[in-house]
């Protein structure tokens, strides 16, 4: 009998939910602090005379310049309401369609998994240990369906709450910018932290409660219990796919339409209230970059946890019923919440930003501090939460592993995430030469800008791929596929901080838009632009994390699928596997083509509508007439709902069709092919788009002699930069981020349906053999 973990089972049962509740309470506290910034011009409000970190006692710039403060605040509140209502309306429409899909797919899961044993209610021999009896396949069908629905609902909730918080905070960030860039930064960052901690804590708590409730029925059958839990990851990622694709099409259709007509043709500033697409553009930031991203990272977290739990259940943890060691993935996430809580205090309470140049370093420090503290946290969890020695399932054999080896697996994933983040920052921040070179290429027009931007994106793939490769090699060498799964969890362990940094970007972007639409001074706009430029880089870092973790997660899920489907080796010399590899490698291109074309066709309608309004509404350019914002919002909504269905069906149906008609070997080839090509395209697309965006902002800011030589706004190099930015929009916000969901979702779906494919798969090959 192998030794058990130092941490008693009772303490594990207490610690995990307590850490989740601490995360929820901390997020509510951050929300309360943000709510102290009032969207009213009431001078008697105590918060307006309070001094301290939030700077309520400072003089307002507008008062010095003699601008009517009350009308500005009222205008900000009005714009915020319009953005919030637009985002809520879109998400409710999207969730109606997604809800229908959820019910339909839940029925498929039940029918397919129930048919494995002909809907029998008799117990059966366990898959991996035939000497023991496990619960019937029908139980797996029922509980997989329940966990799928729970994952889907939690994913939707994560995205919706994130959007509500972002739309609550955007105008408050704008108003705080009057008191200084540091005050605005704190509001935007606290709001991002609300979303980060809510998502991390909710994901952990729902998973923990689900495991304990399922355990009442399953008892000692941990193999069946954790196999049914994989539905949780499938639910999370399937909702994330529709959120990312739908939200991405919405936001980029509006963004491209607003930029092409407003900036290039009419030469008016970004977010000018005369532009009919401006409200739709700001709504899009919340439904795509916030709601979509929240669901996406929740999906990654759920899947990496599920992959680790499935492998652990057939290792010594599951065989010996060591509950503390079994919940090692949840203990890592619990520690992550506590570490991120300490890290957040560094940005909001310990140090204060006083100048624009301090913004980006403060956000980078969040990543460094959380990684360093988390390394110590992982060491502690590995020491008390794991036995000194144990065995891990490794494709039919049991591999002996020490607890310090598993610590290294998690740590290598954590630090690989930091490396990917910093490489992404180097290639997308306008503080470094790659983006400055892209900006300089705009001197000779849009064509050279596009060439330089594409080259930058391809080059930016090199180091992240090596980081992922080293993580895979180290973690697999030490602890087989379980090592890869916990390496992915290591990369996602600081998800609360990562999401806070990520959500900060769209909130700052919205704040700048509100400042422009409310007619606030150019100094306020400069401050919000500085926040937004840092936010663009951090958003790219967040996407790097998401893509890196997706690669590790999908490989771990792939390993679990291969084991569950009874495949001993995936031989690339057999035709069944080769055709799968080729088709799998093609899928990310097909998917990207669909999403890019969707953005293009929606943007075309948007451009035509914006042009029509400028040409037919008298006094619109002069600012004496109001544009019809509602029509542009409707164009984006209709296009995104209609266009998100085909890419979603491609991803969801591929594993089912390949598994049923061609069998598990061909499906394993498809999964491997899509993973290998999808990661490369996702990184290059995200970084190319991010670089073009920041090259445009570099010219607009004019902060250096070189930047001033390319400007000002409206110059030929600036117009070339705007065109590059417009091309990059669907790459960095629609196709790129959605691809990491494609590779994860196909892998987790294959794992959930593995019993069905192992029993009934390869229909065509059976007919012709």
From TrEMBL:
Q: Name one Pfam family in it.
A: H_PPase
Q: Where are the transmembrane segments?
A: 14-34, 97-116, 136-163, 184-211, 326-347, 367-386, 406-428, 449-474, 480-501, 545-567, 573-591, 644-664, 741-765
> What keywords would UniProt list here?
Ion transport, Magnesium, Membrane, Translocase, Transmembrane, Transmembrane helix, Transport
Q: What class of enzyme is it?
A: translocase
Keyword flag Magnesium: yes
Its EC number is 7.1.3.1
What is its membrane topology?
Multi-pass membrane protein
Localization, per the record, is:
Endomembrane system
Primary location: membrane
NCBIfam families membership: PRK00733.3-5, V_PPase
User: This chain belongs to which protein, by name?
Assistant: H(+)-exporting diphosphatase
- Species this chain originates from: Camelina sativa (False flax)
Write the gene name: LOC104714331
């Amino acid at each position: 009998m192998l030794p058990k973990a130092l941490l008693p089972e009772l303490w594990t049962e207490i610690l995990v939910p307590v850490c989740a509740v601490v995360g929820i309470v901390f997020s509510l506290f951050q929300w309360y602090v943000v709510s102290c910034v009032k969207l009213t011009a009431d001078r008697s409000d105590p918060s307006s005379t309070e001094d301290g970190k939030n700077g309520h006692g400072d003089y307002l710039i507008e008062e010095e310049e003699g601008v009517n403060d009350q009308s500005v605040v009222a205008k900000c509140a009005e714009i915020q309401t319009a953005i919030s209502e637009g985002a809520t309306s879109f998400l409710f429409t999207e969730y109606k369609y997604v809800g229908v899909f959820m019910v339909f797919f839940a029925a498929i899961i039940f029918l397919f998994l129930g048919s494995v044993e002909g809907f029998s209610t008799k117990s059966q021999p366990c898959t991996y240990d035939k000497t023991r009896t496990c619960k019937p396949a029908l139980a797996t069908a029922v509980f997989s369906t329940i966990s799928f629905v729970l994952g889907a609902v939690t994913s939707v909730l994560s995205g919706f709450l994130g959007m509500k918080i972002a739309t609550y905070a955007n105008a408050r960030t704008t108003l705080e910018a009057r008191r200084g860039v540091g005050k605005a930064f704190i509001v935007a960052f606290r709001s991002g932290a609300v979303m980060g901690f809510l998502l991390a804590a909710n994901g952990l708590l729902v998973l923990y409660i689900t495991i304990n409730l399922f355990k009442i029925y399953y008892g000692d059958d941990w193999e069946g219990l954790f196999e049914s839990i994989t539905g949780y990851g499938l639910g999370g990622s399937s909702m994330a796919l529709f959120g990312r694709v739908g939200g991405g099409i919405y936001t980029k259709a509006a963004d491209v339409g607003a930029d092409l007509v407003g900036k290039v043709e009419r030469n008016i500033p970004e977010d000018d209230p005369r532009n009919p697409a401006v409200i739709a553009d700001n709504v899009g930031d919340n439904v795509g970059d916030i709601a979509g991203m929240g669901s996406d990272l929740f999906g990654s977290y759920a899947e990496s946890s599920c992959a680790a739990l499935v492998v652990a259940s057939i290792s010594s943890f599951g065989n010996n019923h060591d509950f503390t060691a079994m919940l090692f993935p949840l203990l890592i996430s619990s520690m992550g919440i506590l570490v991120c809580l300490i890290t957040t205090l560094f940005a909001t309470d310990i140090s204060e930003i006083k100048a624009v140049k301090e913004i980006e370093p403060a956000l980078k420090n969040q990543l460094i501090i959380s990684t360093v503290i988390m390394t110590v946290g992982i060491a502690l969890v590995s020491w008390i939460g794991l036995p000194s020695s144990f065995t891990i399932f490794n494709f039919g054999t049991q591999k002996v592993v020490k607890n310090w080896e598993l610590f290294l697996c998690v740590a290598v994933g954590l630090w690989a995430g930091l490396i990917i983040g910093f490489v992404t920052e180097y290639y997308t921040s306008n503080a470094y030469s790659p983006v400055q070179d892209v900006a300089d290429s705009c001197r000779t027009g849009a064509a050279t800008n596009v060439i330089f931007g594409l080259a930058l994106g391809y080059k930016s793939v090199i180091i992240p791929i090596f980081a992922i490769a080293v993580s895979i090699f180290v973690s697999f060498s030490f602890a087989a596929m379980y090592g890869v799964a916990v390496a992915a969890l290591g990369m996602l362990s600081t998800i609360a901080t990562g999401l806070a940094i990520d959500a900060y970007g769209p909130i700052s972007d919205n704040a700048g838009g509100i400042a422009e639409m409310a007619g606030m001074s150019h100094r306020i706009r400069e401050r919000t632009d500085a926040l937004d430029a840092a936010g663009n880089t951090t958003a790219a870092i967040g996407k790097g994390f998401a893509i890196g973790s997706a690669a590790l997660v999908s490989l771990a899920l792939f390993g679990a699928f291969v084991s569950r489907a009874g495949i001993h080796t995936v031989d690339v010399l057999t035709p069944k596997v080769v055709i799968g590899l080729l088709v799998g490698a093609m899928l990310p291109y097909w998917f990207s083509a669909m999403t890019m074309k969707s953005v293009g066709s929606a943007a075309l309608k948007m451009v035509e509508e914006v042009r029509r309004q400028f040409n037919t509404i008298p006094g619109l350019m002069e600012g004496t007439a109001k544009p019809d914002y509602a029509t542009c919002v409707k164009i984006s909504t209709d296009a995104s709902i209609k266009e998100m269905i085909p890419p979603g069906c491609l991803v969801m149906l591929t594993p089912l069709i390949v598994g049923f008609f061609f069998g598990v070997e061909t499906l394993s080839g498809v999964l491997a092919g899509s993973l290998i090509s999808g990661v490369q395209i996702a990184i290059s697309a995200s970084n190319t788009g991010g670089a073009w965006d920041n090259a445009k902002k570099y010219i607009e800011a004019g902060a250096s002699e070189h930047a001033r030589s390319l400007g000002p706004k409206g110059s030929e190099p600036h117009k070339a930069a705007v065109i590059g930015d417009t091309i990059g929009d669907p790459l960095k916000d629609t196709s790129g981020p959605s691809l990491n969901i494609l590779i994860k979702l196909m892998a987790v779906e294959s794992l959930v349906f593995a019993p069905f494919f192992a029993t009934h798969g390869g229909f065509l090959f059976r007919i012709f053999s």
